[in-house]
């Protein structure tokens, strides 16, 4: 079958979506209904297993330079619940950076996190190792946090359903992911057609299966009966950018271009990251 004739059901809204573009590692599809861009999983030859090397090699600056402004926002959301000892569950917690940050901010928060990566034991944090789709949870939590994880999941509807089930009635779910409707993503798609393929290949690599527009991320939440209570502006700290190493001049040009885009994004409210808090 010709790729142009193939349709795939959108993982967010189930609308029949059409072929968008074939890249080096993946084939992308686009949903005209909820403006969602996503990867045809059958086009991925070598799927990521998310070992410890993923953290060390794929995004070293991301994990070395945490988004403390976002962490502060999450801490303030936790405080806003006015629960004396709130329980917080960090889904796909990585190396546990958010949980360790919250531990420093308060000794009253009950902290739990889960990831494929096995973290070192911590007396103040309950680190679980496993797959959230295969884990049986015996308790519910006041606040569920998932940062930069939903884009790695194919079955996003089941994923959000699990989060809803383990969240207490009246509890809060905080989701942060990439923003396909941002200026950076838009610029990458434009210059790809002009022959500069590297930025788009990097943004739409095999690790990110779903690329949420603001519309598709909101749709995913409301479809799962979640009431959106806040959509804070979420910036990507420049220090956490992982720009491919090449020659000094090209690397400097890339940094300058991204800096300009990030400034424009803030003015226009179209950041490369987006966050939703829902109840």
Please give a handful of descriptors for the protein shown.
279 residues; alpha/beta; eight-stranded mixed sheet; five-stranded antiparallel sheet; 33% helix
- How would you describe the oligomerization state of the chains in this entry? single chain
> Would you count the extended β strands for me?
13
- CATH topology assignment of the domain at 50-180 and 208-242 and 272-278: Rossmann fold
Amount of beta strand: 15-25%
Topology as H/E string? Answer: EEEEHHHEHEEEHEHHEHEEHE
How would you describe this protein?
The protein has 279 residues and is an alpha/beta fold. The chain has a domain at 50-180 and 208-242 and 272-278: 3-Layer(aba) Sandwich (Rossmann fold). Helix content is 33%, strand content 24%. The chain contains 9 helices and 13 strands. It has helices at residues 52-58, 60-64, 68-80, 97-105, 156-165, 183-192, 198-203, 214-223, 248-268; strands at 7-9, 16-22, 27-31, 36-39, 87-91, 110-115, 125-129, 141-147, 167-178, 210-211, 228-230, 233-234, 273-278. Strands 5, 6, 7, 8, 9, 11, 12 and 13 form an 8-stranded mixed sheet that branches. It is globular, with a radius of gyration of 19 Å. The termini are far apart. The model has no long low-confidence stretch (mean pLDDT 88).
């Amino acid at each position: 079958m010709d790729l142009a004739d193939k349709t795939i059901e959108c993982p967010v809204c189930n609308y029949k979506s059409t072929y968008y573009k074939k890249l080096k590692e993946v084939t992308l599809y686009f949903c005209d209904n909820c403006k969602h861009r996503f990867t045809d999983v059958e086009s991925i030859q070598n799927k990521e297993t998310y070992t410890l090397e993923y953290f060390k090699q794929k995004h070293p600056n991301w994990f070395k330079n945490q988004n403390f402004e976002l962490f502060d926002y999450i801490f303030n959301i936790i405080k806003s619940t006015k629960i004396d000892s709130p329980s917080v569950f960090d889904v796909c917690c990585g190396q546990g950076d958010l949980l360790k940050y919250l531990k420093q901010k308060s000794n009253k928060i009950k902290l739990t996190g889960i990831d494929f990566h096995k973290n070192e034991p911590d007396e103040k944090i309950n680190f679980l190792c496993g797959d959230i789709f295969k884990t049986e949870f015996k308790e519910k939590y006041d606040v569920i946090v998932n940062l930069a994880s939903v884009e790695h999941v194919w079955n996003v509807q089941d994923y959000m359903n699990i989060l809803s089930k383990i969240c207490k009635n009246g509890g809060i779910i905080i989701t942060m992911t990439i923003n396909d409707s941002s200026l950076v993503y838009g610029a990458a798609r434009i210059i790809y057609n002009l022959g500069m393929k590297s930025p788009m290949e990097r943004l739409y690599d095999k690790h990110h299966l779903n690329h949420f527009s603001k519309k598709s991320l909101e749709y995913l939440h409301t479809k799962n009966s979640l009431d959106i209570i806040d959509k804070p502006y979420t910036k990507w700290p420049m220090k956490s950018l992982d720009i491919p190493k090449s020659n000094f001049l090209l690397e400097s040009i890339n940094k300058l271009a991204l800096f300009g885009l990030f400034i424009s994004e803030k003015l226009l409210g179209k950041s490369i990251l987006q966050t939703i808090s829902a109840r």
